[in-house]
Amino acid sequence: MISMKKTALISALSLPLFSLVGCGGSGSSSPLGSVTVNDTEVAVVAAVAGDYGSSSISVAESSNANDIINGYATTDSSDIQVATHGDYFYRIGRYNQDNITKYSFDNPGVPEWQFSVNDEGSSGANPYSMVFVSDTKAYVLRYGAAKMWIVNPSVLASDEANFKIGEIDLSAYDSTDGKPEMNAAVLVDGKLYVTLQAMDTANGYVPGQAWLVVIDTNTDTEITTGKGGNLAGVPLSVKNPYDLDYRDGKLFITGAGRFYPSEYTGGIETVSTSNFSRTLILDDGDEQSHPYGQIVGLEVISANALVFRGYASWGNETLYRLDLTTRQVSATAFAGIEARSIKALALDENDRLWVGLGYSFGVNDPVIQVINTTSGVTEAELSLLKDPVQIVFGRRN
To answer: Are 173 and 181 in contact (CB under 8 A)?
Structure first.
């Protein structure tokens, strides 16, 4: 899957020693230093404590999945995501943090800068994702705001005034409060595709009409799809879009419906990037029959298959395989991952699926399983100190 900001430089950040943990959990401790990746694909992992009391970032080289470095950017705030581009990775501080912090792989113990993503005089922007066009341009999805930001991530800590370089107003897509709850995005062929949950936040986050909007990254304007009436975007049939991936001319979108009280108004929907036609390829069911629970994440693993997370209850998810030709779901759990606390899915450049597994009622230690998508066999297992809630891949320049 293709799981894509306050004041000045933090001059000092208290960080503990990290653990270099080998497969099976053995390892040693070393002082925080540089990450040696040398033009190798690297995985950056957002890691959150099981009690939600803290978070940190872990880093692993994809080509050597036996080792992972835990403990970068440790804080007492747990709601984080991560992004990576070139020689840098970014900590996205979400709810009640509203900031982005930039780190270099060469010196990951010291932040380059931390900037707010709040509008002047306001709070609660709640950044969800950061998608890069180039070294000098990226988009920041702000879940708690009406406008997406366009930023220049290459600025220095002393140049915060030039961090924000533009914005895109998406308020028309949410009639209740003007905040469309932008939550996921992918960049394909010069176009940014963004899903909008359009929640009724005043009445318990009731899912409304969800949308897909398309942004021309050359002009930073919406592309009119012809599907949305007076609006330029594409109305989705699934509610509460949760995850977004791209493969072979199609966007794959999961909708989770509503968690409480449960509403099965989601599933998996595709949208063509050529003509914006939509197809519901998997319905999540109804109140009487919902065999996979609510669908909260997916990863397209080949031209003919994807895997998705079926959520039954907290800490109880199963990984399923969907055949894209027959639209049949496998009768057994993919790679045997059943009734586990699945936190993240990501596909590396070697088409291996990285599955983040967290604590499940205090029974299982957090790990990442690296799975051969053809055989379903686990090739490696990486031990973490905290739950791996997001995995992104990058490659240094």
So the answer is: no
Contact status, residue 149 vs residue 164, Cβ threshold 8 Å: yes
Per DSSP bridges, beta strands 113-116 and 387-395 are unpaired
**Mean pLDDT (10-residue bins), the chain, 397 residues:** 32 28 30 61 95 94 72 94 97 97 93 97 97 98 98 98 98 94 98 97 92 98 98 98 98 97 97 98 97 98 98 96 98 96 96 94 85 95 94 89
8 A C-beta contact, residue 119 and residue 167:
no
Pairing of strands 352-357, 342-347: antiparallel
Q: Within 10 A of 231 (CB to CB), how many other CB atoms are there?
A: 17
8 Å CB contact between 27 and 21: yes
- Domains in the chain: boundaries: 18-395
Structure tokens at 229: 């009436």
Non-local CB neighbours of 256 within 8 Å, separated by 6+ positions: 239, 240, 241, 242, 266, 294, 295, 296, 311
Residue 173: strand, helix, or coil: helix
pTM: 0.91
CA neighbor of 44 nearest in space, from 309, 396, 351, 364: 396
Coil, strand, or helix at residue 353? Answer: strand
| CATH number for the domain running over 18-395 | 2.130.10.10
Report yes or no: 364 and 387 within 8 Å, Cβ to Cβ: no
CA dist., res. 383 & res. 366, Å (int): 6
Token code pair at residue 25:
């959990």
DSSP per-residue codes, 200-248: EGGGT-EE---EEEEEETTTTEEPP-SSBTTBSSEE-SSSSEEEEEEET
**Which residues contact residue 388 at a Cβ distance below 8 angstroms, ignoring those fewer than 6 apart?**
45, 46, 47, 58, 343, 344, 356, 357, 358, 366, 367, 368
Which tokens is 220 given? 């930073």
